[in-house]
Design a protein that fits this description.
The complex is a heterodimer of chains A (271) and B (168).
Chain A lengths: L1 H9 L1 H22 L11 H14 L4 H20 L16 E10 L6 E6 L12 E3 L4 E8 L4 E8 L4 E5 L5 E5 L7 E8 L9 E4 L11 E10 L5 E8 L8 E7 L2 H13 L1
Antiparallel strand pairs in A: 1-2, 1-12, 2-5, 3-4, 3-12, 4-5, 6-7, 6-9, 7-8, 8-11, 9-10, 10-11
Chain B lengths: L1 H21 L16 H5 L6 H19 L4 H21 L15 H24 L5 H25 L6
């Protein structure tokens, strides 16, 4: 017994190393395949407030550019509004609309690592929930992953775990938008059958299959395409509309019908 | 003794803030985010409790992980660097390191830079291989390790000469 204790005491540093290394290794491997850790992420109060104060300072540098972008978006929306064919009154009663929109500010951006998470300055108190879609005025950005009281983390589309239903605009050919961790200006669209006629420059938008994003939110344009190994599906490189390195204001979309859709789907798969 | 502890706590907080708010947002050449907090392992007192040093390093890495949502990548890399530091020191400074009154003052510049470079190499190699975790991307890992490592080394060398602990 004495010898065992002596042995442990003698190699206590090695034991400590193995113990701590094991903990972090388990967390690392988990982060590769499962969801982001619920307890340790940047949406927490302390990291969130530090990022928010950092963003407070740096947000002044891009104000001119950001204003220009917002005015451009307003211009586009006004054009849509004035050209509405039927001027029937839209329902403003909040129980009638199926999508709710919340605006937020990005306080931490990341696009270098293979699994990028963003942090925004709205949380549970402002009505943010898990699995809300996040977009900018240019296009799609990601999905809310973890929510704390005043901050949330967003799984970027630049994340090897991201998988978003997308289609070619004005057709009904659906595929999945993934990211192969190479280039932050580019995402990949897979599972488009080879009989689909493709043209470089075609627009890719979100499909209507997911209960997270509404249909027809812009994603990007086709940059190049080729067939995959089995020669039956295309691998398409999509050049994103969003400049992922320069994002300030984002919108969160909540699908009011999501709960109902999910309940229905769960019931169907159970039987 | 007390001032050393205070100094290290101060460094710890400052390095976390600098890393998280400044260096993680650099994105130099679109993919280089130097990890300057590695200089903590260079500055940490040479003669110290090894177990405590490992726990502190683990915490440093872990806090940076929480901030940058790369859970436990920085932690395991920092922990390994802390565990391997005595071996690296013996390699860089030779038998001098064993003496009681050893300090950075009686080492050459080359020795110190080699020491720093080895710390950075081990840290980055572990960090990026675990981050990507795929043999197929071996070249990508090497590219990231060397590009980021060189920038980190340059910045750390600058910092170590700017804020040298005991400047005469």
């Amino acid at each position: 017994m004495q010898r065992i204790i002596n042995f442990i005491l003698r190699y206590r540093n090695a034991f400590l190393y193995c113990f701590l290394a094991l903990i972090s290794l388990v967390m690392t491997v988990r982060s590769h395949s499962y969801h982001q850790s619920r307890f340790f992420n940047s949406s927490k109060w302390i990291s969130g407030s530090i990022y928010a104060s950092g963003a407070d300072v740096s947000s002044y540098f891009g104000l001119r550019e950001e204003n220009r972008r917002l005015v451009g978006e307003n211009e586009y929306l006004r054009k849509l509004l004035f050209n509405l064919e039927n001027d029937s009154v839209q329902p403003l009663d909040s129980s009638m609309v199926s999508y709710e929109v919340i605006s937020a500010k990005l306080i931490k951006n990341s696009f270098v690592s293979p699994r990028n998470y963003l942090t925004i300055d709205k949380g549970r108190n402002q009505g943010v929930k898990q699995d809300m879609g996040v977009i900018t005025s240019q296009g799609i950005l990601g999905i809310v992953e973890n929510v704390s009281n005043n901050f949330s983390t967003v799984q970027s589309i630049l994340n090897s775990k991201s998988n978003i239903n997308a289609k070619i605009k004005d057709t009904n050919y659906f595929g999945s938008l993934i990211w192969t961790s190479q280039d932050y200006t580019m995402a990949q669209l897979i599972d488009i059958p080879r009989l689909v006629p493709l043209v470089v420059g075609d627009t890719i938008v979100t499909g209507g299959m997911s209960s997270i994003f509404p249909e027809n939110i812009p994603i990007g344009t086709i940059k190049k395409y080729d067939l995959n190994e089995s020669k039956s599906f295309y691998n398409i490189d999509v050049e994103l509309f969003n400049d992922m390195a320069n994002i300030k204001n984002v919108y969160l979309i909540e699908n009011k019908n999501r709960k109902e859709i999910e309940e229905l789907e769960a019931k169907t798969t159970n039987e | 003794m007390n001032s050393t502890i205070l100094l290290n706590i101060f460094r710890f907080v400052l390095l976390v803030l600098a890393q998280v708010l400044i260096f993680n947002t650099l994105n130099f050449m679109d993919f280089i985010n130097p990890m300057v907090y590695v200089i903590f392992f260079y500055w940490y007192p040479l003669k110290s409790n090894r177990a405590l040093f490992m726990v502190v390093s683990f915490l440093l890495g872990f806090i940076i992980d929480v901030f940058s949502d790369t859970l436990a990548l920085n932690a395991i890399a920092s922990l390994t660097v802390a565990y391997a530091r005595p071996v690296i020191m013996r390699f860089c400074f030779g038998v001098n390191y064993e003496f009681q009154n050893f300090s950075f003052k009686n080492t050459t510049k080359i020795q110190r830079v080699t020491f720093l470079a080895l710390l950075i190499l081990i840290h980055h190699l572990l960090f990026f291989s675990l981050e990507i975790l795929s043999i197929a991307h071996f070249l990508l890992i090497l590219k990231k390790v060397f590009a980021t490592g060189i920038v980190t080394l340059i910045l750390c060398t600058l910092f170590s000469s700017l804020f040298s602990p005991k400047s005469e």
